[in-house]
């Protein structure tokens, strides 16, 4: 049984990936400093899979602790690296916080595995594309100047990984550029758990629907899109989690053509903000209150991905639709309103 280290494994995407890893027969070690997640997620994972993953509360910026962990677990064969700060707005306010955390953690991890064969799957983002010149955006699209320090950390991290893999053939790295993950596990036991006011659309929708928030603001209805609102490629978090297993299996089977590879992970279809609101109402029967506001600075007008490379080379494809995403997100919102973590 392969042992996989999941950094940030109690977070939103991390916890769903841990579940899918365990379902696929992997042994999992989670490292998380609980800066943006709850220890209670371990109980939830155990309820779903019947297996409690090994857990270490470690800040990956502490180099000695990372080295000790890796030394004491010589049978780790793969790493899925989620742990990072990820709020765009906060990164603009506190750039050094983002550069310190997102780079030190990655460098400490890579250093700790020096000399060992390791498969690493990196949590990247479609943020690296900015507003693409052409849609759908492919992996060959130019990486544009980042709109935020957060986006810049993803761009530079990919450069660090590419150059490290080129210089050390024992590192096998796949970077997954996610589009917009939403939804929750079908059990309703894990899902997105934002601290404070949600920065993303779907958790704001579900919190508004349950009465935690007021009316939803749609930022702009005058974009050059069919209904005037911004368009994104939304992907169900469970489909996204399964993409990580597909990437690991590619590495384990020795199918990588280069030591550093990039894949877009999305549905290949864009949905507007107003379409998401409509799909939520249709799939749940809950009416939403929303208003049109001014455009928000930094928002990309529209982006969705060409995911044919992932379909062809990872043998992976998104299976769940927008209504599945919103129905599951609503089930999770109702669960945590009655069972706070």
TrEMBL record:
Pathway(s) where this gene product acts? Carbohydrate metabolism; galactose metabolism
EC number from the UniProt entry: 5.1.3.2
Does the keyword field hold Metal-binding? no
Checking InterPro entries in the record gives: NAD(P)-bd_dom, NAD(P)-bd_dom_sf, UDP_G4E
- Give the reaction(s) catalysed: UDP-alpha-D-glucose = UDP-alpha-D-galactose
Q: Where is the NAD(P)-binding domain?
A: 5-327
Top-level class of the enzyme under EC nomenclature = isomerase
Cofactor(s) needed: NAD(+)
What are the protein's GO molecular function terms?
A: UDP-glucose 4-epimerase activity
Q: What domain of life is recorded for the organism?
A: Bacteria
Keyword NAD assigned to the entry: answer is: yes
Q: Which residues form the signal peptide?
A: none
Q: Which UniProt keywords apply?
A: Carbohydrate metabolism, Isomerase, NAD
One matching Pfam family: GDP_Man_Dehyd
Q: Which GO terms describe its cellular component?
A: cytosol
Example GO BP: galactose metabolic process
Gene3D superfamilies xrefs: NAD(P)-binding Rossmann-like Domain (3.40.50.720), UDP-galactose 4-epimerase, domain 1 (3.90.25.10)
Q: Subunit arrangement?
A: Homodimer.
Family recorded in the similarity comment: Belongs to the NAD(P)-dependent epimerase/dehydratase family.
Note the NCBIfam families from the entry: galE
Protein name, as recorded: UDP-glucose 4-epimerase
What gene is behind this protein? galE
């Amino acid at each position: 049984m392969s042992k996989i280290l999941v950094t940030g494994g109690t977070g939103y995407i991390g916890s769903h990936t841990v579940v899918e890893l365990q379902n696929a027969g992997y042994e999992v070690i989670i490292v998380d400093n609980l800066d943006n997640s709850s220890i209670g997620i371990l109980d939830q994972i155990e309820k779903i899979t019947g297996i409690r993953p090994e857990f270490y509360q470690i800040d990956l910026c502490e180099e000695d602790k990372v080295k000790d962990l890796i030394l004491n677990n010589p049978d780790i064969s793969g790493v899925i690296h989620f742990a990072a700060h990820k709020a765009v707005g906060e990164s603009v306010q506190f750039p050094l916080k983002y550069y310190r955390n997102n780079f030190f953690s990655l460098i400490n991890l890579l250093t700790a595995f020096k000399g060992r064969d390791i498969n690493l799957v990196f949590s990247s983002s479609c943020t690296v594309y900015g507003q693409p010149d052409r849609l759908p955006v492919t992996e060959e699209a130019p990486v544009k100047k980042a709109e935020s320090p957060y986006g810049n950390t993803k761009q530079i991290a990919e450069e660090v990984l590419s150059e490290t893999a080129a210089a050390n053939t024992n590192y096998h790295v796949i970077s997954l550029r996610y589009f917009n993950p939403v939804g929750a596990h079908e059990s309703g036991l894990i899902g997105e758990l934002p601290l404070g006011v949600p920065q993303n659309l779907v958790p704001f929708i579900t919190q508004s629907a349950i009465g935690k928030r007021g009316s939803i603001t749609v930022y702009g209805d005058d974009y050059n899109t069919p209904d005037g609102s911004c368009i994104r490629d939304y992907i169900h978090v469970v489909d996204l989690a399964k993409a990580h297993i597909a990437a690991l299996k590619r590495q384990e089977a020795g199918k990588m053509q280069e030591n550093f590879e990039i894949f877009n992970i999305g549905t290949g279809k864009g949905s507007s903000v107003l379409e998401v609101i409509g799909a939520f109402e249709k799939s749940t029967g809950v009416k939403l209150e929303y208003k049109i506001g001014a455009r928000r600075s930094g928002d990309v007008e529209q982006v969705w991905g060409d995911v044919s490379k992932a379909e062809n080379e990872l043998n992976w494809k998104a299976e769940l639709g927008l209504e599945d995403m919103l129905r599951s997100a609503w089930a999770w919102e109702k669960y945590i309103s009655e069972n706070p973590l």
